[in-house]
Write a structure and sequence with these properties.
Number of domains: 1
Length: 196
């Protein structure tokens, strides 16, 4: 397999690629994660992931440290409730408000994935439907205060306490909710041939 560079500092994405036994290096460049207001929600994470991949490739080309066949893998995960994107919370109050809005409802988790090198680009997204139990304010405050999910879209991580006690059902890829649909990524990497 060609050299793979993960354009993410997410410890969860790193862990998932390691579990899949895919060799990779991490290179991250800060990027603007905003998106056009009229962009369809399904396209938002791909838009952001493309920007992440481009930033890393531009940086590596600038320092002349990239081979033509090197694949940059970028991803972005969003939470969507009632067709509205729920971002990362800025503080405790917003985290509690986000989880309160998700309580007792079904939402979508969409991860956009981009594979890019000097020759071509391939992008796709995977959607998982997640149904929360009705959560008490005490449960929500306990989770926020103990786990401080301020770096997580929707204010939660499925692999933490709230996923164990708060999630009623999942329809789709569990690992997608963690931040990377690994099986789909492995399949895409297998098919990604820079010579074509």
């Amino acid at each position: 397999m060609n050299e793979i560079i993960l354009a993410s500092q997410s410890p969860r994405r790193k862990q998932l690629l390691e579990w899949a036994e895919i060799p990779f290096k991490i290179v991250v460049k800060s990027t603007d994660e905003s998106f056009p207001a009229d962009l369809e929600v399904e396209k938002v994470p791909i838009h952001i992931a493309i920007n992440k991949a481009k930033a890393v490739i531009d940086y590596l080309e600038k320092i002349q440290n990239i081979k033509p066949a090197t694949i940059v893998l970028a991803a972005d995960t969003i939470v969507v409730l009632d067709n509205q994107v729920i971002n990362k919370p800025i503080d405790r109050k917003e985290a509690i408000a986000m989880l309160t809005s998700l309580s007792g409802k079904e939402h979508r988790v969409i991860t956009g994935v981009v594979l890019k090198n000097a020759i071509k680009e391939h992008s796709f997204s995977v959607t998982t439907h997640v149904q929360f139990h009705s959560l008490t304010i005490e449960q929500i405050e306990f989770y926020v205060d103990r786990y401080k999910p301020y770096d997580k879209a929707g204010s939660y991580a499925i692999q933490e306490w709230i996923g164990v006690v708060g999630i009623a059902a999942i329809n789709g890829d569990f690992y997608n909710v963690m931040g990377l649909p690994v099986a789909s990524v492995v399949k895409a990497l297998t098919l990604f041939n820079p010579q074509q």
